[in-house]
Structures are given as structure tokens and as C-alpha cells.
């Protein structure tokens, strides 16, 4: 009887650790970390809780993990991780958490609480997003060769794009539509600006606005996955990046076809 | 002299613009200014290199420098490298190329559309190659910076 309860608690403990580990992996993966980091983080954290027998297989959009307990029971988890937009702050937080777990700072229940807090950590407020969008797009507009008037004209467009993206995200628009509509808004905004204020360089305004949509994170992650030998995951991310680029081109093309051609 | 002033202005704007992108990607507050600096350095290298060299080579060189800096920051600031990598790559990513390719394609100027499309692809490949070159350097090299920092 006694041995049964210990084995039960042993496998319960194992299940908890697997929960923790796969939650950490899923959060990393959803926010743009590369496969190798996901796998090593999961293995290191399991090791820190004395569960050395863990196998992890991960793709860009899913995690499979099996953990063996000392009493020869084992548990397995499959986690579906849809491709999402990256929140690099969460990657940094998980990194910090896994470092602290490896220093044995938390027991398993505290760690579970921490990871839930990270998963629900607040994103930046809308007003800051708008300011950042305005500054980011107009800054690159200037760098790509716009003058000070183009710089000023890009600001409201960057802001408008971020605002629309915010609403499209909360209305759960598909990523494809988000990018097509986003780039169409930027192009239309640039067209209107250049029509109202003669002398503005429309190309500069539109490229400045579009830079917000550029798939920087999937592109870099894809390269790093390829570099680490995770070709399948690298391909998934690369397709993601290419698709965003095509959507951007489609949005631009759509507006030009309608109003200019 | 004029050129130096232009560069200085562009450097400051690049810091601010990249910092704005760091905010959009929810980068932690402590890393904002370092993200901005990485982006500005990559722009500076790109500008200086593109005076004499072709755009592709200039992008490649800038990527080399910026990935090296990103890895150094990642070690000294104990933060995943992706944060600085994304900030540093942003000024180089060929967003302009995507726009012009679509533009010429719609305007039925297929020769120019093809040229711009190939150039965009070349730039993306240059960035990829640059990242891979610096990622191949052993981690030990970057740990040296960490020890220096502590002493």
C-alpha cells in the first residue's frame, strides 16, 4: 500500500514537471525562439528537478515530450503551438526563469505559478504602441531617403497601421488578411498624403509605413533553425516570412491597381 | 564635414526608430537602449560600406558586425540573443525591395519587377549568410567578454 502511494506521488510529480516544461517550451516557441533553445531549455529545467530521462521533439508549431519516472511509469504530452506574433519580452522572461530554476530557487509549484504569470504578462499599452509605430515608421522613412516633410507625413500612417492592427488582432482576423489590409492601409494613406500635400515622396512614405509589417522575427528564427540543422522548422518559419512578404506586396498592388493604374 | 553631420543625424534617428521597434516587439525595458544601439550601428556600417561597395556586400558586412555585437550584448546582458539580433537586422531587411517589386509588377514593368525581386532575394540571402557566419563562432569567444565585464 505504502509503495503504491509513493509511486503515485512520483508519477504525479513527474506529470507536474512535464506540465511546467512543456508550458515553458510552448511559450518560447510561440514568441519566436528557435527550436534548439526550446529543446535545451526543456531538458535543462527537467534536469534541475532531477528528471533526467526526458525526450523532447519540437517543430515550429508543436512540441512532443515524454518523461520517464524512476518507477518506470512515463507520461507524454503533445502541445499544439500555433504560429503567433512574437513577444520577445516573454522569451527573455522564460530565459530568466529557467536560469533561476537551474539555480534551484523555486520548487515546482512556485515555478508553475511563475510560468502562468509570464503567459499572462501584459503587453505594452496601446498608446505606447501608437507612439512606437509612428516613430519607427517615420524614422525608417527618413533613413531610406525621405526628407523632413516625408518624416512628418509618415507619422500618422504608422500610427494608423498600429491602431488597425490592434483592432484586427482583437477581432481575430487571420494573419494573411491582417497583412494584406495593413499594407493596403499604408499604401492608401501614402497615396492620400501625396495627393493632398504636393511635393511629398509617396514611395518613401509607403516604405516607411510598411517596415512595421516586415517579418523580421520569423526570418531570423528561420535562419537560425536552418543553421542548427532543424530544416523542417526552418522551412516552416521561412514560409511564414515569405507569406507575409507576399501579403505585403498584394496589399500594395491592390491599391495601385484600384487607384493608379 | 557635412557628411559626418548627416551620418550623426541618421545615427540618432536609427537609434530612435529601432528603439521604437524594440517597444513594438515587447522587448524588456532594460534592453531598449541596447536594442536601439544595435540597430543604429548596423545602419552606420551599412551606410559607410555602401559608399564603395555594392548593396549586397554592404548588407553582408553590416550583418557580420551587427550579429557579433548582438551576441556580445546577449552574453554581457544575460538576455536571449534574438532580442538584439532582431533589432540589429531591422534596418537591413529589404522591406523597400518588397514594395518596389509589387509596384513594378502592377505597373506591368516586368523587367524592373524581376530585377527588384532578385535584388530583394539577394539581400535576404546576404543577411542569412552573415548571420550564419557569426553564429559559427564558438560561444567561448563571447564568454571572454563576460569575464572582462566582471573584473
Number of domains of chain A: 2
Count of separate DSSP helical elements of chain A: 10
| Mean pLDDT across residues of chain A | 88
Order of SSEs of chain B: HHHHHHH
Q: Averaging pLDDT over every residue of chain B, what do you get?
A: 88
What general form of chain B does the structure show?
globular
Report on this structure:
The complex is a heterodimer of chains A (261) and B (151). Chain A has helices spanning 2-30, 35-48, 88-102, 108-119, 126-143, 148-170, 175-196, 202-210, 216-227, 231-259; strands at residues 54-59, 62-68, 74-80. Chain A is mainly α and 261 residues long. Chain A has 2 domains: 2-119, no CATH class; 126-259, no CATH class. A 3-stranded antiparallel β-sheet of chain A has the order 1-2-3, with helices on one face. In chain A, helix 1 (2-30) runs parallel beside helix 4, helix 7 (175-196) packs antiparallel against helix 8 and helix 7 runs parallel beside helix 10 (231-259). Chain B is mostly helical. Chain B has one domain. Chain B is 83% helix and 0% strand. Chain B has helices spanning 2-24, 32-52, 55-76, 81-89, 95-106, 110-135, 139-150. In chain B, helix 1 (2-24) crosses helix 2 (32-52), helix 3 packs antiparallel against helix 4 and helix 5 runs antiparallel to helix 6. At the A-B interface, helix 3, helix 5, helix 8, helix 9 and helix 10 of A face helix 1, helix 4, helix 5 and helix 6 of B.
